[in-house]
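User: Hey, quick favor. My workstation is busy. Could you predict this chain's structure for me?
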Amino acid sequence: MSTRIAFIGGGNMATSLVGGLIASGTEPASIIVAEPDADRRTQLSRQFDVATTDDNTEALLHDVVVLSVKPQLMQTVCRQLAESTNAQHPLYVSIAAGIRTIDIERWLGDDVAVVRCMPNTPALIQCGATALYANETASEAQQQLADEILRAAGITTWVADEALLDVVTAVSGSGPAYFFLLIEAMQKTAVKLGLDKDTAARLTLQTALGAARMANESELDAQELRARVTSKGGTTAAAISSFEHDDFHNNVSKALQAAYNRSCELADELGKDI
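Assistant: No problem, here it is.
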């Protein structure tokens, strides 16, 4: 990729994207990271051989500006960029959770190309799942650029309706924590039943990895895969019956609904002018 890419914010997610881009062939010389922390700038420069700066407006000289700051800082950063005279009409790619496109457009000024993304934390190991939404100003070529950048950290998918990003937040954005919770509960119970902690962890983690790979690589859906490993009257059936007795599916549904509702609320809160 010969595109010049700037990151504003050099945190974990930006680091994962920079690392993924370079691993996939992007020249380090085409990347700059604007980061206020001097130690972090030094670390990024040494690790990836990319340029760094403490001046956010330098990012505007690039083709793509990835907004990777904390959501609470997004408005301040966008308004700072809007006041600069260096703008070359770049594509803005936002990976800040909960910040709607309409608010980014308002803070940056009219007629800006914006792609809003909802990644998740496995992007830190290039195993992420990211949904993207483009505003009307973003061209097809710019959308392709955004897709290439986010694919450096995992799979990507596009939504035509921005409101669906709140659903994505509830499913894949917050989703890793749901699986961590199940892993945590299984490990604790295994120890309670007699296994040592290391054995409980190894077995649980490998089981989670194996199940995910089977589901990802199989042509069968999750329901069919579950049915095939659940023999009538067996141990798995006993466990599934216990889950269903406690209304497992409804509990999961309620949890995702709660995450969805909170995502909508946060977007309203973060979109208010300060």
